Task: structure prediction
Amino acid sequence: MKVKESEYLKIKKPILKKLLEKLLAKYEYASILANDSKSVNYRVNKSGTNISEDSTLSERGFVVKIYDNGKAAEYSFSAIEDDTVDAVYFEIVKSVENLGNTLPDGTDAYKYTAIDEEELYINESTEYASDPEEKGDNNIIDLLTRISEKGRAYDKRIIDCSVAFNYQKYSKMFLSKKKDLTQNVMWSCGYIVTMAKEGEEIQNGYKPVSMLGGIEVLDTLEEKLEDACNTALDLLKAAPITPGEYDCICEPDVTGMIVHEAFGHGVEMDMFVKDRAQAKEFIGKQVASELITMHDGASTIPQVATFFFDDEGVPAHDTIIIDKGILKTGICDDQSAKHLGVKPTGNGRRQDMTRKAYTRMTNTIFEAGTSKVEDMIASIKDGFLLCQASSGMEDPKNWGIQLMVDIAREIKDGKLTGKIYSPIVMTGYVPDLLKSISMISDSIEAGGTGYCGKGYKEWVKVSDGGPYIKARIRLG
Amino acid sequence: MKLNKMKGNNMKDKILASLKRLNIEEYIINITKYQSAQMFFIKKSLDTKRAENTVSYNVNVYRKFEKNGKEMKGNSSVHIYIGMNDNEIDEALKRAYLAASFVCNPAYDLMECKKNDFITIESDLMNYSLEDCCEKASAALFSEDNRNDVFINSAEIFAYETKEEIITSTGIDSGYTKRYISGEFVAQCKAPQDVETYKDFRYNTLDTDALKDKVKKTLEYTLDRAMAKEAPKAGKYRVIISDSYVSNIFDYYTSRAGVGYIYAKYSDYEIGQNIQALDDEGETAEIKGDKISLKLVPTEPISGEGVWQNTLDFMDEGVLKTYHGGVRFSRYLGVEPTGFLNKVEVAAGSMSVEDMKKKPYLWVVNFSDFQMDDFTGHFGGEIRLAFLYDGEKVTPVTGGSINGSILDCQTNMYFSKEMQREANFEGPYAMCFEDVTVAGV
Result:
C-alpha cells in the first residue's frame, strides 16, 4: 500500500501559493517547504512502558527561503491561514530586513548568482505492508512486552531488556516558481538493548531492525533476542585490547560506520565550499582499494533515508562516490552547488522546519564483492572480527578515524577463539584503511536505527551498511 | 528573576476545553514558543541569515486503571497544532488517552501545585533585540580573527528566546522566558600543515569577553596543531585534560545517581556512600587524589513536569548526598522530585595547572570526540592535539587515542585550582589522571 498524502497540506497548498506569489513579486527567488509529520516512539523495559509522539520528528511547519539581491535568507513558522497570508509575508520581509545589517568588521554578505531552476512536478509515495496506526498501540506494546520479559528472564545477570519500536510518517510539499513537489514517506525501526551487570560494570547488547515501510519491520526482531543477550553477557568477560595494528574483518554494521563516518562526511560538499574537506583535492584519484565502490543517495536502496526530493526541492539521486577505488564526486546540497558551480545531488536535508539545510548523507553503502565470510575469517592468522558499531566522529579535514566498536572477537590461525576484547577505538588515516581492504563479502546488509549529526547537532535519519570487509586497522 | 505573565492563547483554551469534554482528569500541557535570529558565516562572508517564530503544544494525558489488582497509571503524549479545530483536537487526545490505557506503569502522583509564577530569567540579553544579540555575538567572535597564519574558517551564531508554559491538572500554570546565545566555529591553520579545530559555545548572558577568549585560545591551539606531526608512542601516560572535556567526566556520577538509573538498578549508588571510592567490584578504596564536591544547578526555574527547581548539593568530598530527576521515578523511590538540573558546579582542586605540568605529562587539549560511558566507566577519544612533556621538552603531538576507566582513575585524580565557566558547567579548568592507556604509534 502507498502512504497517503496529508490532508492538512492539501488544504494549505492554495494558501501557501498565495504567499509564494507575494514573495516572488518582491524577491528574485522564493520557495516554501511544508511538512506534516507524525512519529511515535514505543518502548518497554523494566522501568515501565512508554508511548509518546517524538517531539523532534513530529511537526507541522513551514520554511520560506528567499534570495534577496543574491543574499540567502530563511524564515521558519508554524501556522498560516487564508486570512494571515499578509501578516506572515510582512513578518518574513521584516526578518530579512532586520538581521545582518551590522556585520562584523572585515566581513561582507555573500551574493549568489545563477539562481535558476528547472520545471519539475513530483507526487510520489513510498509503500508499506502494515500501518502502525491500524495495528493498534495495544498490539505493538504486547509484542514489545513479550520480548522484553523474555530477555529479562534469559540470565540472572541480565538486568534489563529494553525493546522499542518507532516510525515516522511524513508528507512534504515544496513549492517554488517552477516546482510543485509532494512526497509521502514512512519508515520504521525497532531494537533490542540488553543490559548485563557484574560488580560496578554494565555491558549492553544491541540488535536493530529498520526498513522503509511499516510495522512489518518487527517481524524479525524477536529472533535477534538471544544474540542480544549473549552479546551483553560476553562483554562482561571482555578484556582490554593491546593497542596495535591488526588484520580485521568488519561486520556490515562496522563497515557501515566506516562508510558513513570515516569517508561519507568527508565528501559532503558544503565542506568543499569551506575548504574543510581533504576529499576536494582527491577527486579523480585513488582513495581506496580497487575492490571498493561506494554509493550514497535517497534512491540508492530502499531504507530509512529514502525519499523522492530533498528539502531544497532537488530530486533524489544515486551518486557513485567511489568507483573501483577512484574518488569520482562528492554529494551536494543546492546552495553549496551554487557556490561550487556544480549540479546538486539531492542531499540538502534539514533536521526539521526550524533548521537550515546542509549537505547530508542519506543511504550510504559499499557495494558487495565476491568473497565468502568464512574464507575471509580463515585468511586471518592473528586478528579480530569487529562487531557492534557504537559511535563515530567525522574528520573531513584530516581524514582521521575515530570509530568506537563494542566487540573485537579474536581470530587465531583462521579461527575464532571465543576470546573477546572491549571497548575498541579504531584510529588511523582513512585512505590507508580503505586502500588496505583486501577481501569483500558477496552480499550487503544496511540499516538505520540511529541519526546522523553534523558535528554535534542537526540530526537526520540515515542508513548505512555494506558487506563484510577485510582490512588492516589500528585498534586501541 | 522578575515576573512576566505569559499571555493566554486560543489554542491553550481549546486544548483545556477538549480535555474537559473528554473527561481526561490528569494531564500536563507544555507550550513552547521559540524565536531566534541566526547567522551563518563562511570565511569572511555572511552566507545565510535565518529567523524563526514557531510554537509547539505538547499534551501528556494520564489514565488510572487496575491490572491484576494493582493500581496503574499510564500516560501518552501527543502534539496539537495551531489551526486544528475542536474535532481534530478531540480525536488526537482521545487516541492518546486510549494509548495511555496500554501503558502499564505503577500508579504515582503528578507534581502538586506549590506556587504559580511566570518568570523572566534575567540576562543582559533581554536588553537587546534578538537580531542585535546575534550581531553583537558575531562581532565578538570575529574580533579575534585578525591574524594571517590562523583564521576562522566558518561560524554559526544563534540568539534564542524561548517561552515555556506548563499547565497541569493539579493546578500548575507557570512558566518562564529565557534567552541565550549559542553557536560554533571552526578555526583553520594552513601551514606547515592544513588543520582545523571545532569549538561550540553557549552563554546565558552577552558574555562577549568569554567568547573572545575562547576564540583566541582556539586559534592558538590550531596553530600548535599545525606544528604537530607525530602521534605519541603507545603506552601508559600521566594524562591531563582541560576545557569542556573536564565536565564530561562528572557525567558518570550524575547519570548514575539519576532516579531512572537507581530505580532500574542500573546503578547501586546509595545516599551517604562514597561513590568516588568505589572500585569495579563495588568495594571502597582510599582516595589519594582530590575529592569531588559537586552541585547541580537549574538553568530553568521550573521543569516540564512542574517541579520548581533549586540548587542541590550532590556530592560532598566524594560522598553522594542526593538522587535527582523527574517525578515518576522519584515517586517510586520515595524521594522528592528535583526536576532536571542541567548545570554542574564543581569545586576547585588542589593543584595549579603549572603544578600538574611539573612532572612528565600528555596534555590533551583537543579530541575529535571525547566520550564518557556512564555504564562501563570507560572514557576516551582520538587525540587531535596534545602536548607531550617527557621531562625535558614539550612537543605538540596529534593522533592516537586515550582509553581510560574512571573506576581505575577516580581515587587518584587531581583538579586544577583554575576554574572555567560555561552555561552548563562551572568547575576546574583541567584535571589529571595517572597511568592512562594511550594507543599511539
Remarks:
- Chain A has a mean pLDDT of 95.
